[in-house]
Structure formats: C-alpha cells, structure tokens
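Reminder to self: tokens first, then the designed residues, so the page reads top to bottom the way the pipeline ran.
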C-alpha cells in the first residue's frame, strides 16, 4: 500500500534520526510521541510531540513514533494542547500537572477531567467528530493515593469529561491505552478524524466499559478496537490488550502465558474486524505493535511468544511500563491498514 493510497503512515525511528530529517519530512508529520528515560523530544515549535518518560527496551535509544498524513496540514495551539490537522485527520497532545483540588476530587482526577474536557472542546470547535485512539501515560498508575488506586482516579476523571460533553461512555467509544511512566505529568496524545469510527469488542472479554464495580467506581471508557475507512483504506486501531478473559486477569506471574493470552485476544479482535468483509483482511503478522512490559527481564519471553503467534520478523517496539492492573505483566497495542515505516 502506498502512502498516498492510505492517507496515513506510521513511522518509528530513533531520536537521532529524527533530528536529521529535513523540512519536507517535517511538513508531512501530523505529530507523535517520543519514548525515553528521562523523557526527551525535539523542540519544534509547530509540531506536536509528546515526550514520555518510558524506557525503550532492546536497544535503549530514545524512540519516536510519528504519524504522517499526505494532506495539507495546519498547526495550532489551544490552551495546553498542541495540534496539527488536515481535512480529515488531527493529532494533538498535552501534558498537565497534578495540583491540589479545591473540592473532593483528587489531583489526578482533576487533571484528567480538565485534559479531556479541553480535548473535546478543541475537537468540537474544529468539527472532528471521532477519535481514532487516545494514549494516556502518567506516574504510579498502580499506587494508591487519597484512598484510591490512581488508575481508578484517572477513570473517574475521564468518564466525567465524556459525560460533561454529552459523549457516550458505553458502546462506540474510542480505542485507548493507559500506562504508568517513570516520571512526569499526565501525558495524553490523541489521533482524531472527521470520518466515522466503529468501535469493536472482543467476544472473549467483557467490554471494559461494563466491568463490575470491583475494578473501581467508574469503568474504563474505551473500546477494544476502532475501525475506520480513510482514503479508501480500512484501518484498525487496537487498544492496549492484556491477559484478561471475561473480566478476570489470567496467568498472574507468568509473562509468557500472559503474552499468549493477549495475542489470542488480539486474534479474536481481528476475527471481529474481518467478519463483515468491509475491510482488511487484517492479519497478526501485518500489524504494527507497541508492547509494554512491566519487568525488562521478561522481554525475551514476550518477544518469543509474540513471534510464535505472528511470525518473524515482527514489527514491534518494546517499552518498560507499569500496566493498569498490578497482576498484569504485559500490555500490547496494535494498528493496521495504514502505511508503515519501521526503524
């Protein structure tokens, strides 16, 4: 698939190579994320780049994930959000600190609600009706503070923002991930479109937005995947996927088994995406993967299991991150149908 045919291209490249790119390359970049420890990203005034404090495994050099679009792009800033957009696509990012609240909300809950409300206000003002996916990163995701795990605080703030803007919190909601960083603020990036996005669910799993209350007072607001047609091509955005069947964590303490279960979940999602014949077909070996691993020593096990499922060489990057449940060692996100330039 050519870049022009697909409208959207994902590129992974080391930060050192990013710094060597010329103005023509930069003019076609929507924006992206840079992963390293400590966090680092080039200071380019009109390009939205999110610097995430997350170590890169298997090489260690700072890594940039850049989304490109062949449309004519304009840049802007609204409050804390930096963004670039064309006629059908928008990439934006922001970082917000956590500050003491004047009410009963926790600092992370306030930051999350504020960030999402700002994102929705921007998208509504520019007539972007759908979000392809959100990336959420923040410190100490599993730690308890103010009497509650921080991931649960985040879910309350996120859902409150959805509700405040009249957006559904069940059904056709965006794909997303939420991971714990080494340091930093609440970091959020998002890819939005004027096209219609269809949320997909996994028959092996309870939908995250229908989780029982044992996982927190508010359920996570995301679909298992989102499917969209852009430039005549059907694309798929798979949310962060882990070793969960039904709503239970499986294989605690076993990174290899968790990886197998996660890949089985992604395979089931691909079956759903391919079922009606409206795009694809999507296959495990053709996706781009971003893999979050809690313990770096588990990298060889995780990589081997993924290659058994999807084949080798695998188009994957590996990052060290805390996953949203304490018992989860691995989380895998993926995308497909777009053009891809890999390292």
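Designed residues (343 positions):
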């Amino acid at each position: 698939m050519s870049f022009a045919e697909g409208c959207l291209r994902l590129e992974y490249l080391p930060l050192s190579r990013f710094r060597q790119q010329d103005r023509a390359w930069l003019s076609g970049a929507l924006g992206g994320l840079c992963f390293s420890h400590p966090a680092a990203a080039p200071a380019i005034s009109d390009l939205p780049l999110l610097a995430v404090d997350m170590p890169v495994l298997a090489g260690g050099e700072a890594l940039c994930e850049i989304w490109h679009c062949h449309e004519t792009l304009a840049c802007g800033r609204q409050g804390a959000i930096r963004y670039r957009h064309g006629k059908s696509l928008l990439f934006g990012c922001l970082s917000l600190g956590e500050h003491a609240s004047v009410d009963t909300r926790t600092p992370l809950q306030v930051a999350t609600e504020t960030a999402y409300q700002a994102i929705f206000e921007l998208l509504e003002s520019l007539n972007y009706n759908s979000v392809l996916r959100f990336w959420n990163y923040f410190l100490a995701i599993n730690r308890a503070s103010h009497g509650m795990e921080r991931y649960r605080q985040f879910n309350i703030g996120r859902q409150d923002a959805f509700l405040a803007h009249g957006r559904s919190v069940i059904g056709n909601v965006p794909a997303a991930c939420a991971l714990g960083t080494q340091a930093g603020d609440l970091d959020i990036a998002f890819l939005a479109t004027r096209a219609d996005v269809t949320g997909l669910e996994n028959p092996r799993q309870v939908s995250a937005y229908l989780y029982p209350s044992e996982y927190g007072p508010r359920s996570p607001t995301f679909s298992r995947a989102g499917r969209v047609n852009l430039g005549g091509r059907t694309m798929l955005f798979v949310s962060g996927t882990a070793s969960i069947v039904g709503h239970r964590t499986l294989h605690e303490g076993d990174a290899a088994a968790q990886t197998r279960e996660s890949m089985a979940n992604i395979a089931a999602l691909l079956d759903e995406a391919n079922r009606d014949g409206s795009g694809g077909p999507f296959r495990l070996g053709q996706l781009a993967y971003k893999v979050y691993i809690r313990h770096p020593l588990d990298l060889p096990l995780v990589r081997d299991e993924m290659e058994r499922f999807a084949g080798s060489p695998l188009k994957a990057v590996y990052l060290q991150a805390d996953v949203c449940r304490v018992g989860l060692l691995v989380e895998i996100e993926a995308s497909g149908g777009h053009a891809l330039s890999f390292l």
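Residues 3-342 form a domain with the 60s Ribosomal Protein L30; Chain: A; fold (CATH 3.30.1330.40).
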